[in-house]
Design brief:
15% strand; 39% helix; five-stranded parallel beta sheet; alpha/beta; disordered N terminus; five-stranded antiparallel beta sheet
């Protein structure tokens, strides 16, 4: 084991990357520094990054704000960076990256047309599994994207407004790791001589899955004795270290699975319970030489907890939710995804008038909450809100329920009844599941919408009503009209202003905020000590397709709070159908495996991860008859993820 404690930069810099003469392709060079001001070329980092490495490092800034680019470029030039390029159009970032091949990318998260995560996906495709040196820049109020970025391919994040000294520290760390990965690819040898200096916990296993090298950080993380490590089998090391983690069973299953598949790549977030609670980014991948022969497997842990920052992000999540409610006034509607913002915009536009609204969405998405929010934020907020479930009223009683009846109008009518429309006078009536209404009631409802007056069953006179009508349905009403099951004139009357409610699978980025809200809600009502969700549980919630939408999520969280004995809702408290059969996390980058799909007889060792992934998708689509939902279930990934991977590989289902 004994790795000499020497400066890692002694031989890490490739010869072709030594400082070059002035490069006119760079935006910022020494020429930008005033001749009367001493040039500071030493980067204020805590790593051993030499001046020549700083000068030779290529930096690419992707930001739509030219002022930000100008200030960053000038600041980095003062710190000694001589090769800096920029892109203001995020759609052009991949092309510049492919031509320039930077050592580090400073990537803005919030850009019009194509955000930072989409740009990172494009850059990741170019790298094809190689190290992607992205440092993502995020506004200090953007809590949800920061949490998302922790589990993304970005190697680090920094908060705006940017502190230049902090930026240089983070850049120095990323550049150090970048050059170390490059040295591995060029020299075709193990990481034993250098990985002790990266600041990350790193272990190298040989082709027989026996420990060949564990750096100082790895030994400190797992409190291991250097004398007992060499040659230890991966299974023995797994048993020795699993109790370090908050969810040892999840760690053990993922580690066993990734070692069982020599081509598997794993990226996820794990949580330690001892000696201290920390969040660690974990990366595991096979190591191949130039001839594609397998040398072994590398496992890397990077501390991403930064306890104070994590606590700050939790506070920002709560504050963001409070600000969202304050801004929109939609008390029970939680979410900051693009789909929810679009829905909020439509709701706002509907507040200033009495236009008839049709709320469309799958069961469990919260259509009644949308209708109620429109009512309480409109000029009719002082009037009643009456919700009528058209699907729950017997066909023979729906007319009486809606419009009322006079005494003696029919057998059993022993007294006058005031209908729902009269009860809602001056306010709003919600006709929920209006697609279930029978044709006769549809005809009478159409007249009420046209004339704004009703007639009780058995009554002789008409009664004017002042109500706003909001209809809701999970059905495809145009299809029902086409099939003759719903009146076309009524459809055109109620569909004046449609508001679609997005299903939960289309706004999965809202799941952490929704889950946090529900955990606190049920912990308080059930008097349980649960204060949050473990990383493993949250990952399973994010990966699930949620056919029952927010209602199903709420039921799952409520059950989990009941079953959780401690302060964190763990993966073990979730229903079995949410638990993956093959718990390889980070499905954006994992190779997909169809467990029941047969292995091709032509498959050869050394095939690229991209080809293996494409073949797995093709087999899954073939087995399921091109049913994308079933193929996603077979591959144990989210359907949205599968669609994106199909697009990446040029695959499209027949139907």
């Amino acid at each position: 084991m004994g790795v000499p404690r020497r400066a890692v930069w002694m031989s890490a810099l490739p010869l072709d990357r030594l400082p070059a003469p002035y490069d006119n392709s760079c935006l910022y060079t020494r020429a930008h520094i005033s001749a009367t001001r001493p040039r500071a070329v030493k980067v204020a980092t805590t790593v051993n990054l030499p001046d020549e490495a700083v000068q030779a490092s290529k930096v690419l800034i992707v930001d739509d704000d030219e002022a930000t680019i100008e200030s960053l470029g000038a600041a980095l030039a003062e710190k000694g960076y001589e090769c800096i390029r920029s892109v203001t159009d995020p759609t052009a970032a991949a092309g510049v990256y492919a031509e320039y091949r930077p050592d580090i990318v400073l990537l803005d998260r919030d850009m019009p047309g194509m955000d930072g995560f989409a740009v990172m996906d494009a850059l990741e495709d170019l790298e094809n599994g190689s190290y992607l040196p992205v440092l993502m820049m995020i506004d200090d109020e953007d809590a949800s994207p920061r949490i998302r970025a922790l589990a993304s391919p970005a190697k680090d994040i920094i908060t705006k407004p940017i502190d230049v000294d902090e930026l240089c520290v983070r850049m120095g760390n990323l550049l150090e790791v970048r050059l170390l990965y490059g040295r591995l690819a060029l020299k075709e040898h193990t990481l034993e001589s250098v990985l002790d200096y990266t600041g990350e916990a790193i272990a190298m296993f040989d082709a027989g899955d026996r420990l060949e090298f564990a750096n100082r950080q790895y030994q400190e993380l797992f409190r291991l004795d250097d004398a007992v490590l060499p040659g230890m089998a991966a299974a023995d090391l797994r048993e020795r270290t699993k109790d370090t983690f908050h969810e040892p069973d999840r760690f053990e299953a993922a580690d066993r699975s990734v070692f069982a598949d020599t081509s598997a790549v794993l990226e996820d977030i794990v949580e330690t319970a001892m000696p201290a609670q920390r969040l660690l980014y974990r990366f595991s991948a096979p190591v191949l030489d130039r001839a594609r022969a397998r040398l072994g497997r590398i496992v890397v842990y990077r501390d991403v907890s930064k306890d104070a920052e994590i606590e700050e992000m939790k506070g920002e999540v709560l504050r963001l939710r409070a600000e969202l409610r304050a801004e929109y006034g939609f008390d029970s509607l939680i979410g900051d995804s693009r789909a929810m913002r679009e829905m909020f915009a439509l709701m706002h536009s509907a507040l200033g008038n009495d236009i008839t609204v049709l709320v469309q969405g799958e069961s469990g998405t919260g259509k009644e909450l949308v209708a109620r929010a429109i009512h309480v934020n409109s000029a009719r907020r002082g009037g009643p809100f009456v919700a009528v479930n058209c699907a729950a009223i017997p066909e023979t009683l729906i007319e009486s329920e809606l419009f009322g009846h006079e005494r003696g109008a029919f057998t059993g009518a022993t007294a006058r009844r005031i209908g729902q429309f009269e009860q809602a006078d001056g306010g709003t009536v919600l006709l929920d599941e209006i697609g279930e209404m029978n044709p006769m009631a549809q005809a009478k409802l159409l007249r009420v919408l046209q004339e704004r007056e009703i007639q009780r069953v058995g009554g002789a006179g008409v009664i004017p009503v002042d109500v706003r009508v909001i209809a809701a349905t999970h059905k495809d009403l145009p299809a029902a009209v086409e099939a003759g099951a719903f009146r076309d004139d009524l459809y055109y009357r109620i569909a004046v202003y449609p508001i679609p409610v997005p299903p939960l699978r289309d706004r999965s980025e809202d799941i952490p905020t929704l889950t946090d809200h529900m955990v606190r809600k049920y912990a308080a009502s059930l008097n349980k000590p649960v204060r949050g969700v473990s990383v493993g549980a949250l990952q399973q919630l994010m990966d699930y397709d949620w056919p029952g939408n927010v209602r199903e999520l709420e039921n799952v969280v409520q059950r989990g709070v009941v079953l959780t004995p401690n302060d964190l809702l763990s993966a073990e408290a979730l229903p079995a159908h949410l638990r993956p059969q093959h718990p390889l996390a980070g499905d954006d980058d994992d190779v997909l495996h169809a467990p029941s799909a047969p292995q091709s007889p032509d498959a050869q060792p050394g095939v690229s991860l991209s080809d293996t992934e494409k073949a797995a998708i093709e087999r899954a689509l073939a087995v399921t008859g091109n049913n994308v939902k079933q193929a996603a279930n077979l591959l144990k990934v989210n359907r949205t993820t599968l669609y994106r991977k199909m697009k990446r590989h040029g695959l499209a289902p027949d139907r």
